[in-house]
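Fold these two proteins, one after the other.
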Amino acid sequence: MNSMPRILAAACVLQVSVAAPPLRAADDARVTVPAGFTIEVVARVAGARELAAGPGGSLFVGTLHGDVMLLRDAEGSPHAPEVFAHIDEAPDAGVSVGGDSLYVGTRFGVWRIPLASDAARVDGDKAQAPGKPVKIESVRPGNGGGHSTTSLAIAGGRVYAGVGSSCNACTESDPTRATIQEFGLDGGPLHAKAVHIRNAIALAIDPGGALWAGVAGQDELEHGHPYEIFDAVTRHQGVVDYGWPTCYENHRQAAPDADCSHQTVSRVVFPAYSTPIGATFYPAKPAGRYAFPETYAGGAFVTLHGSWHQPPVAPRVIFVPMHDGEPVTPVDWSNPDAQWRLFAGGFQRDDGSRIGRPTGVAVGSEGSLFVADDAAGVIYRIRPVRG
């Protein structure tokens, strides 16, 4: 399924908005998308991480520093990025819109910023949030080391927060670490929906309302393992146990005498060390001026950050075809490439050096796909070619 898209120079043109200088990319390492699509850089945001579509066609950008950025008119002629809010608990990486609020995941908590009166201000001259950020939940109390980003997704009046582990493989003393926490839109009561899940960064809600999580697996196992997982967490009853650090993949043992019989097995897998960072589902009924073809309806886009392993696994954006909330192709435990196809690539040169590493991903109000890149510090906009 992993047919390579054509090189950008042949299939489409890397367009660059006047507000964003062109990427310095070698001819042999150009960003690629499938034929029939265009890609352009629409903004520069240092340390850009998760993305969330906001009111009035805006786009919120979480970052590795203490600022949440706003890109106004993201589907039209984007303005220069502006600081929407500052929270002094960097990284302020996670962003998600729910109801009348923007939720921000930081190193030590989840914050709520009201948006009810903000649509005009998002579209107008000022980007400043109408109300001060209010912390509604705390995570990693007293210890922000290890995996420090907090990813967010919202569905059914519930906030889900992915809180990564403090280590590669250990027994956590902090009950919020290596979990997906669940709580109400105004905070509390806080409890785990998923446990023993090493670093659930890529959270997304599918068209049916289920929470999915893409997870970065542990190191120092047999080379090429564990496969990275992407699973529908809330399709499972109760608290879901993914087995880390003693179990992985299809009930495989990472520790002697580990009991893996109760480990939850994922619906989708990616190659080891790919590091899923962001995910979004394309609408089941695509609409808007830049709606993707029907073949993408209901499917998942996942950004893979790549690895530090040798040889390095390339960063890329992939697409997982779905039907009625399930992957079109079932898991093949002998082939972690079977369920997805490459959508955007070219981030890594043949010598292993990189021009970027994709992170957040979101669908805009008119159907465009937006992709963040924390290494290049840019926001890409991808949309079909219109005749």
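Now the second one:
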Amino acid sequence: MSDQAPLVYLIYGIPGSGRRDVLFDLIDGGLEGKEQVLYFHPEGEATSPFDEQLEALDTVSIVNWKLSDASLVHDQIDAAPEKIIFLAPGNSDPADAAEAIKSWTDLNNCQIGRIITVVHCAFLSENSAAKAWFDACIHFSDVVLLNRREGVNNKWVKDFEVGYRKQFSPARFLMVKKGRVANPLEVLEPEARRLSLYFDELIPIEDDEFEDDEQPQDTKPDKYIERRESGQRAYPVPDIKQQL
């Protein structure tokens, strides 16, 4: 690792949503000079035309990784990166990925840059049952990139964003055109705009300082991360594999 704490990015999205197109664009257009990038590629992910382009970048080192429950398992790291980018497995539980990345980031003294969700609009517009999975991804995300909009009604795209606005989501919703975003620097800017406070450093508060019904949101467990005594999630995310 480099002397300065690397910024960590996590990208959510289903297979075929154009995550690696976007990833290449962010690295190629959003990073200055020779910033070294450590790219964690999910083990077993189907190949993409952009895999070769990512491998060809001399500033990028690629490491395979996988989720084991809510833990992160990866190959050996032989790099000193300034940016670290995790591509979440496209069929994984977003809460498991969030928990694994936070644990790894804390253990390695890194800092969260941003969490990004790439939305496959054509898929979601035809598979409304998958929305609960995207809800969980967007709950953790600072930026939501609307991709694969070919053949999708503009009203659907607008209503999709407005729905989250009505839920007071602070995330930025941006369009992807031909695998590119208008301003990669804007996407990578390490400014927290996520609804979840799970990745933030919070000031500890004494347990008895508030009544249960008065407890501030920033002292409560994240709804997707919280577990019951049984070890099961209190608010489980539907398995996206059933929709793919």
